[in-house]
Design brief:
eight-stranded mixed sheet; two-stranded antiparallel sheet; 25% helix; alpha/beta; 238 residues; binds S-adenosylmethionine; Rossmann fold
């Protein structure tokens, strides 16, 4: 059973017991990294960072030690996904959440795992074959488009990816129409005030307050924050 609490103020999900865990880092060494402040007033700086080495990122994102703090099974359970539904994981990376999402939707549902890196999409396609989850479709998308069809999904999950998306106002306005009636968007990310040793550098982070401000401007409604993870906030939007 999940507990979604009404958000009051900035979502600082503290906890420093897993300090320096490499699975939580986004090492700058792996590719070029740029910060772009976009034109729209509501659009906070975006971090552009390549994730084009599946072998490397598998070791980071799929480090078994990550499960202890990322709690993928509990997080997916809290999304209250029903069998037969369709879930999109935007910025799915190496597909860390895919087996959990595949189990939640069952054989009659669909998981659309989107990423902008062709090599990661190929990796996730092979992963789905290896794991025997034909309900998982790895799909290549573009940085400024969700890559989803109109009213295609019941749930959208965004884990550690929000700050990589540029032109967010336009992006999330478009994303709204990809959700079915009653659909939800769940954003999991690091607060700038949380443990700096765990997760991306504080200057790459956006608070839940900022994310909420941007998403509400794009037409979403904040529903609540899930108090589940030691290092990240979990915000739910409709
Ligand atoms: C920090 S990784 C997170 C991966 C995964 N969500 C996880 O938690 O293991 C961010 C991912 O988002 C992808 N990405 C960046 N910008 C994107 C965009 N505009 N649309 C979709 N994916 C994007 C990157 O290629 C990368 O795989």
């Amino acid at each position: 059973m999940s507990i979604w609490i009404l958000w009051a103020g900035c979502g600082v999900m503290g906890g420093s017991e897993v300090q320096g865990d490499p699975a939580a880092r986004e090492p700058a060494a792996a590719g070029s990294e740029e910060h772009h402040a976009h034109g729209e007033a509501d659009d906070h700086a975006t971090v552009h960072h390549r994730f084009d080495d599946p072998e490397h990122w598998s070791k980071v994102f799929d480090d078994p030690a990550r499960d202890a703090w990322q709690k993928p099974a509990e997080l997916v359970a809290a999304l209250e996904i029903s069998a037969g539904q369709t879930v999109a994981d935007i910025g799915a990376g190496t597909g860390y959440f895919n087996p959990h999402l595949a189990a939640a939707v069952g054989e009659g549902g669909r998981v659309i795992a989107l990423d902008v890196e062709p090599s990661l999409v190929a990796h996730m396609t092979e992963r789905a074959r290896r794991e025997g989850t034909p309900q998982v479709e790895a799909r290549l998308t573009q940085p400024d488009q969700s890559g989803l069809e109109e009213a295609e999904v019941d749930h959208v999950l965004l884990v550690n990816t929000y700050h990589h998306i540029g032109q967010r106002m336009a992006y999330f306005r478009e994303l709204k129409s990809k959700l079915r009636e009653g659909g939800q968007l769940v954003v999991v990310d690091y607060d700038p005030e949380a443990d700096p040793e765990h997760g991306p550098p504080p200057e790459h982070r956006l608070s839940l307050a900022k994310v909420t401000e941007e998403l509400e401007a794009a037409g979403f409604t904040f529903v609540g924050e899930l108090s589940l993870l030691p290092h990240q906030y979990v915000g739910r939007f409709r």
